[in-house]
Write a structure and sequence with these properties.
With 423 residues, this protein is α/β, with parallel strands linked by helices. It folds into 2 domains: 4-31 and 282-412, Beta Barrel (Lyase, Ornithine Decarboxylase, Chain A, domain 1), CATH 2.40.37.10; 103-274, TIM Barrel (Alpha-Beta Barrel). The chain is 28% helix and 25% strand. It contains 12 helices and 21 strands. The chain has helices at 18-25, 34-47, 65-72, 83-91, 108-117, 127-140, 178-187, 207-226, 254-265, 278-281, 314-318, 408-413, and strands at 4-7, 10-13, 16-17, 29-33, 53-58, 77-80, 99-101, 121-124, 144-151, 173-174, 191-197, 233-235, 271-274, 285-296, 301-305, 324-326, 336-342, 351-359, 366-369, 391-395, 398-403. Strands 4, 14, 15, 16, 17, 18, 19, 20 and 21 form a 9-stranded mixed β-sheet that branches. The termini are far apart. Bound molecules: ligand LLP. The site of ligand LLP has 21 residues, from helix 10 and helix 11.
Length: 423
Amino acid sequence: MNHFEYRDGVLHAEGVSVPDIAAATGTPFYCYSSATLERHYEVFSQAFKGQKARICYAIKANSNLAVIRTLARLGAGADVVSEGELRRALAAGVPASKIVFSGVAKTDAEIAFALDVGIDQFNVESEPELDAISRVAAGMGKTARVALRVNPDVDAKTHEKIATGKAENKFGISWRRAPAVYAHARTLPGIEISGIDVHIGSQLTDLEPFSTAFTRVGEMVEALRADGHNITRIDLGGGLGIPYRGDNDLPPHPDEYAAMVKRTLGHLDCELTFEPGRLIAGNAGILVTRVIYEKVGDDRTFLIVDAGMNDLIRPTLYDAFHEIRPVAEPAPGAEEVEYDVVGPVCETGDTFARKRRLPRLKAGDLVAVMSAGAYGAVQASEYNTRPLVPEILVRGEHFAEVRARPSYDAMLRQDIMPDWLSD
Ligand code: LLP
């Protein structure tokens, strides 16, 4: 469910017409709906009513400060994976006491910064990282609360580039080695073990891999408790998938996910942390782009738009499907054309959709790439020296630019000419 709908034949974001934003901002741009962000947060949060659960929004999905603040106002904590994300969470108003720090390899500097601002928990991904956190914390006279991220060796049945829970993946500590690492952690200064953490991948559309992993985690909690560890917290990561093809491929509802969590882990009476990213932001954003040319080739017809793979890399990187909607609502029975929707970047991979049936479009028309609120703007680059896409946040009848398009001068000023070339 989202708040991007046709009204009077024109795509709207809540109460704002998309062409109005395009006229003010130019194209391409990302557009986010506050009501959708809030709704997704509330649906997830309601699903866990009655369980001891907190939501730490995975900042990596969409780290615009205005998006984070919208969620922070509802009580969301944050899951961060770098000092930069930690600084964003704090700047947007997430209290340090609601921040968990995940990520494969935290540096000494990042650990020190996180201890300094007083984050709630480190999710530790390896033995050397555990030792580093101990060394830095002890050196600062502080105690780091840690959960060990275990790798349960479970196939998440998602795209291989976003699966993280198999033994072959770089993430987490092997569940077989975990008892020994917990025993080691207990001997370390500056470390307080509070829990266990798991995250097996992203865009999971089946509950079975979750339930296999969570059952394994539950067994580990019991074994660790029997070894004398005081395990009171379980962090279950993120990963619940979203519909990318409208209502035709609905993944499990958060209520079903919550029931599965209760079934697998409810008996342990632990405090639960969830790190949803995509589920909250994915369908709360669209990428709006303008048709530059319709190009009729020998083999197919290309719809060339002004957004490219540098703006939204998901189709290129993960073969991701994104629905594409004309901003002007097609008349019933309008002629359809099979298009390859491509961007202007000089790579064949710069393709948003192949053989997509759309009403006939022409230069100047606006189209919306749907479900682009998560892992869209955050993965954008300036490849081909294209300015980073601006971001717009809508609330009811209002919209605001929450990140401006940089000027070409500003972009070029980032490079510095060395002495020997500045004449
Ligand atoms: N927690 C941890 C430790 C993670 O690594 C991730 C995502 C999340 C939470 C949030 O997962 P979510 O609820 O969003 O599935 N760029 C890729 C997705 C990468 C996900 C990375 N980790 C994409 O566009 O599909």
